[in-house]
Design brief:
mainly alpha; Growth Hormone, Chain: A; two-stranded antiparallel sheet
Amino acid sequence: MSLSSAAPVTRTVSSARRFSTLTHVQLAALWFALFAQWMTVVPVIVPDQIARLLGPNAALKEGVSGSVIAAGAAMALVVAPLAGALSDRCVAPGGRRRPFIVTGMLGTCVALALLAPFDSAGTVLLYTLAFLHLQFWWNWAAGAYAGLVPDVVPPGERTRASAWLNVMTVLGSVTGNAVLLALYKPGHLGAALGAFIAIALVCLYFTVRGKREPTPVAAHEPIAWRAFVRSFYLDPHAHANFYWVLVTRLFANMGIWSIFTFMLFYLQDAIGLHHPVDVLNALLGAGAVLAIPASVWGARLADRHGVVAIVRVTSWIMAGAAVGYVLLALHPALVLVVPVALVFSAAYGAYQSVDWALALEVLPTGSSAGKDMGIWHISMVLPQILGPAGTGWMLSWVKGFAGAGPAYVVAFAIAAAWFVLAAWLVSRVRLAPGAAVAVAAAGD
């Protein structure tokens, strides 16, 4: 793998050629593997292992768990844009993204294996280092992969590509939770991690063997590091839509990660369940299944009404679901948690179905798609720092003098506020009239 001082010119894919369903599935396969891990390791495995290291009734488990997850997200905040930008300049014969994707996924497999010993012993510090190691490789692969999509997907296929990425997100989440239900037992994480490693290798093979990348063409010159660093700054006046998408996506993800990270403890402490891991896995799996038709429906509505409208409506629905969690914290009842969780999952599925399409609509033009999508990726990663850490320590503090119910009332009220901000501000995005519809129609 070699790097050039400027982003290499690539041979572009013809927008007139329609992708087959198989091509879309192969391209999105890596997202399946990553979400099988992300939607299980972060919300279930990390909190459960932290609770085992500290003791299940430790007063600070929320704060420590949130801080460990936030530290991992801080790693992602740096690595994803860096990997994307470096892959822009890579001139490897097989494609500029491939070396980063392959090494990232192989590194992920090693890092997953290193989590297994913490089921029986270890310290929070060592566990944090192991989780940071995993986050590095996750984002080394994901940062470059985010640039692969605009590299190979022509404009007429972007709505379909976004929908397929969301379908694989959902299927990966379902599969990950099925793996935990079948193989994860307290103190015996090895079998589940082995399954995640196998899934990662199979999906890596399908993505690499799928749609061939454009061939980079550039001179082999050293990187001008000062210009490289400056390239991360985008003029807000020239790219206002890009920044509004960043801000609104950041707010939506603040709401998601203020809820998602602590659902295990919410079910245990506020709802009063004795075996919350099994219930959470079932809820996540059922929600992910429901999100599949919701994502298809969301993509079709986006073709008709535009991606901005769907992002706005789904953000309002997620805000309403967060208010539902507030009411349930006041009057705990598992039977009522289920419909609220399913409504939230359906809205989130529809939101994600157009998430990539909206980003691609406002992406700055040029050959630095990896860097720009890496910057876009920050709006998903930064909330994983601020949400878990801030909400986690707030929960530990309020629980100390008011109890679990009031603590989660405050947490979910704040989450609802984030969704309201996302729904309100996304209207500031100004796409050309009929742009989303035109993009969809071009692929028909």
